[in-house]
Amino acid sequence: MRPVPSLRLPPAPVATAVLLAAAAAAAVVVRRRDDADEVVATAVERATLGRRNLAVAGLGARTGRRFAMTAARKTFASAERRSELDREFQLATAGDVTEALGNMKGALMKLGQMASYIDSGLPDPVRQTLAQLQNDAPPMTPELARSTVEAAFGAPLAERFAEFDLEPIAAASIGQVHRAITLDGRAVAVKVQYPGVAEAVAADLGNADWLFAMLATAFPGLESGPVVEELKERLGEELDYELEAANQREFAEFYRGHPFIHVPEVIDELCTPTVLTTELAVGVSFDEVCTWTPEERNRTAETLFRFSFGSIYRSAAFNGDPHPGNYLFRPGGEVTFLDFGLVKRFDAEQTDLFERMINAMVIERDIPAFRSVITEAGLIAPDAPFTDDEIGDYFSFYYTYVLADGPVTIDEEYAAGGVRHLFGTDGEHGELMKQLNVPPSFVVLQRITLGLMGLFASLEATADWRSIASELWPSVSAPPSTDLGRRAAEYRRGRGQEPMGL
Known about the structure:
Blueprint: E1 6-7, H1 16-36, H2 43-74, H3 79-102, H4 107-118, H5 124-135, H6 142-153, E2 161-164, E3 170-171, E4 175-182, E5 187-193, H7 197-206, H8 209-218, H9 224-237, H10 241-254, E6 261-262, E7 275-279, H11 286-289, H12 294-315, E8 317-319, E9 327-330, E10 334-337, E11 343-345, H13 348-363, H14 367-377, H15 388-396, H16 400-403, E12 408-410, H17 412-422, H18 430-433, H19 443-459, E13 462-463, H20 465-472, H21 483-494
Parallel strand pairs: 1-12, 6-10
Antiparallel strand pairs: 2-4, 3-4, 4-5, 5-7, 8-11, 9-10, 12-13
Helix pairs in contact: 1-2, 1-3, 1-8, 2-3, 3-5, 4-5, 12-19, 12-20, 13-14, 14-15, 17-19
């Protein structure tokens, strides 16, 4: 029987909680300057921004004091005690971050959520503390929820729904979800945007100098302007529920009748710019999936992989938020995808670029050709002082699981290594990192890749990723290699489509 390699890298300390606290503190400095320039136009917005400033200012101050105290205590401590102090510092800081951002709707909480599911390098207690940001955002009161929905429809709830549960079934950074029954008897999920969250996100994204500073630290060679604009545009789109409804209709049509990928239908007549109503989906949470058998976890991961990467080549669209709360699961690899607020669309030139990178790095294993492609894409300068071997060594990491023949297990050390590798904290590629750039088209791609690796690590997912990916890559279009692949191919034949991949 063929051995199953496990992608493991040496552990290294990761300080996501400190990064978030520093980002929040930097945001306060920027916002104070912008207040002086009267960027925020109304008294209400100033008051809201002031409260957010106080929250993040307190977070930054507490972190700074705790860091100084920890450093002082470590001066004369043993190596074992220093490790304990570091762990205590991370855990306490993570708790502060969760408390502050968990009560702060908008882009900063979104940042915390992203960190909570991409960072597999933190100690388990710290990750568990940050993970509260994924599902435990404080909801609106029932009275506020009622008034918000009625204001959106311009009518009492009873005129739009036969039943409406004012206790939400989910609450996140931008809105919360309620169960309801339509007047014609359909069970639906109603996503309601928080009042004032648009202003909060606009304040966070409008004062983005702190994000420039963080990106410049991580990528000294980065042209940060286009990247920040890409992030602002993508996150800003999440506030537009009409756009999200259009995205979801498109994905629902594309996957209608699929054997294991499900997208709830949009209920058009019950949608507004701040309310999105869809079919009510059923399934279990990601946490429960993590308790399933290895076979079921592997099938779940395979579906996530096929949906995420297959969509790039099949529909040139990419659902860019791999938040575990955005999925519902059933046995057999069935996954329902719930959130289409952040969808990145790629043009033919961009998808061709991704294909050429795959061909050069994986299929042909031609590193000079790969270097030529990424130079053309703007990832690295034409005169960058690095050998082809150095370029190949650095970028091969991102393709490790598809470079290997046979089953590969994606574990937490590999997922954490991806974060360290991307941000240059692995201690191996510092000079090369200083000259790398991240083109805007890669921003969302990196986000979902890191997010998926984090989810696969939690599942300890094992698969022959190379064979599955070969079904999805247009230049290969390999025959089905798994049961899910065969079911997908049969589905596509039934729809009169080329049976590739999904």
